[in-house]
Amino acid sequence: MALKARGSLRVHGTIAREIGLSIVSGRLRPGHVLDGEIEASSQLKVSRTAYREAIRILSAKGLIRSRPRTGTRVNAISDWHLLDPDVLTWVFTQVPKPEVIHGLFELRTIVEPAAAALAATRRTRIHLAEMRRALDAMALHTLDKIEGREADKAFHAALLAATANPFVISLTNGVTAAVNALTEFKQRLAKIERDPVPDHLHVFDAIAAKDAEAAREAMIKLIRLAVLDMNVKQRPRPPSGGKLSEAAYFIMV
User: Is domain 85-251 annotated with CATH 1.10.10.10?
Assistant: First the structure.
């Protein structure tokens, strides 16, 4: 059956998406060998070039690995680039496993409070202006709309940029993708009644005031409230019988 492109995706992007969804959903298990290029492109009624490009995309995201003679195999989750925006989107197309949600909130708790504190000591007027514009757009559009969610991502991106640390800044795509994936997932389950703008504004005010500790605490509170926005059944919990890591204390609210 021919594969039809979805939305603005080109053919190779559509192929990559469909295979990627099959992998992250578990329909294609680790170790599964994909069909060869000639057979697969024939079945999908696409060019070999389009299929080859799709395989290249998936390989770059860590979902598959091609080897001479052994073919192209699905990788274990430990090899996936989980913070790749596409991979996160595919994971959250379905209801993700609890450990995925927990892991993302734990990541945010590790990275963002420290980044907020650092941003408070290094921010420039340009960074503040970018964060302010993002907050205004969030308030105007709300997280119900894609424009509001894009503004939310812009706020967090500007905050990371304000750290002036190239290694922290390199986490921008992953962190903003995590923020967006969690927000879209919560919105899909139920409308978020709480207005998140005031909590972001507290972070902004602390950074503007160059108060590193207040910025850190404001970001911790923002993440805690984001956890509580989750439906109780999907709210992250630590593994049964295990001890909370220091970075996971946010769950205890």
Answer: no
